[in-house]
Design a protein that fits this description.
transmembrane; transmembrane helix; mainly alpha; membrane; globular
Length: 209
C-alpha cells in the first residue's frame, strides 16, 4: 500500500473514532442538572462544544495525513493556534454562562436533534447561531482542503480569523441573554397570580346604631 493509501486509511479511522465518541458519549451535550423526565444522554447539544471538537478533528486529520505523505509532522502555525484559541475560548465562555459562579446552573432540556439544538436559542432558530455555524463549517472545510493540498497547516489569512472570532464573540454575547430569557420563562408563577387576583372579603353590613 502506498503512503497515500495509508493516509486515506488513517483519515477513515480518525473519522470513525470521532463518530464513535460523539455517538456513544455525551461529549457534545450540555452539562448541568436535567429537567424532570430527561435522563443523561438526552439533553441538548452544545454549539460551543461542537465547534471545539470540529477543529480538533480537522487538526488530527491534517497532522496525520501530512505525516504519512511527507514523513514530516507539520509544526503548528500561529493561525492554527489562533483557530484553536478561538474555539477553546468560546467553549469556556459558554460553560461559564451556563453555570455562573455562585448561581444554580440552568437545567438542560431534552434534545430535539443536533441541528435544531445548535441553531435554537430558546425562541426559535437564531441568526447569530446560524452565522456561527456557517463560519465554522465554511472556514473549516477550506482549511482542510488547502492544508491537504499544501501538505502542511494552511496559513489562513488573519481577516478570516477575525471573521471567526467575531462570530464566536457574537454567539457568546447573545448566549448570555439567552440564559436570562430561558430562566425568566421557566420561573414559577406565584400562587397568588396563578389563582387570579385575591377576592376582597365580603363586607359586613352595617348594623344600625
Amino acid at each position: 500500500m502506498t503512503m497515500q493509501g495509508y493516509a486515506v486509511l488513517y483519515s477513515a479511522l480518525v473519522i470513525a473514532l470521532f463518530a464513535a465518541v460523539v455517538w456513544k458519549t455525551d461529549i457534545l451535550r450540555d452539562r448541568g442538572p436535567l429537567v424532570p423526565g430527561v435522563v443523561n444522554g438526552q439533553q441538548t447539544f452544545s454549539l460551543a462544544r461542537s465547534q471545539l471538537i470540529w477543529w480538533t478533528f480537522l487538526v488530527a486529520v491534517i497532522a496525520g495525513w501530512t505525516l504519512l505523505t511527507t514523513n514530516n509532522l507539520p509544526a503548528p502555525t500561529l493561525e492554527l493556534l489562533g483557530l484553536l484559541g478561538i474555539s477553546v475560548a468560546t467553549s469556556g465562555a459558554a460553560s461559564l454562562i451556563d453555570a455562573p459562579s455562585g448561581a444554580i446552573p440552568a437545567s438542560a432540556q431534552r434534545s430535539r436533534g443536533w441541528l435544531q439544538d445548535v441553531l435554537d436559542d430558546g425562541q426559535g432558530v437564531s441568526i447569530h447561531r446560524y452565522q456561527a455555524l456557517l463560519a465554522n463549517v465554511g472556514i473549516g472545510v477550506a482549511f482542510l482542503y488547502k492544508s491537504v493540498q499544501l501538505q502542511s497547516f494552511y496559513p489562513i489569512d488573519a481577516s478570516w480569523l477575525v471573521v471567526l472570532g467575531l462570530s464566536s464573540a457574537t454567539y457568546v454575547g447573545m448566549k448570555s441573554r439567552e440564559g436570562g430569557a430561558i430562566a425568566a420563562q421557566a420561573a414559577p408563577i406565584p400562587a397568588q397570580q396563578a389563582s387570579g387576583p385575591a377576592s376582597a372579603p365580603p363586607s359586613t353590613p352595617a348594623v344600625p346604631a
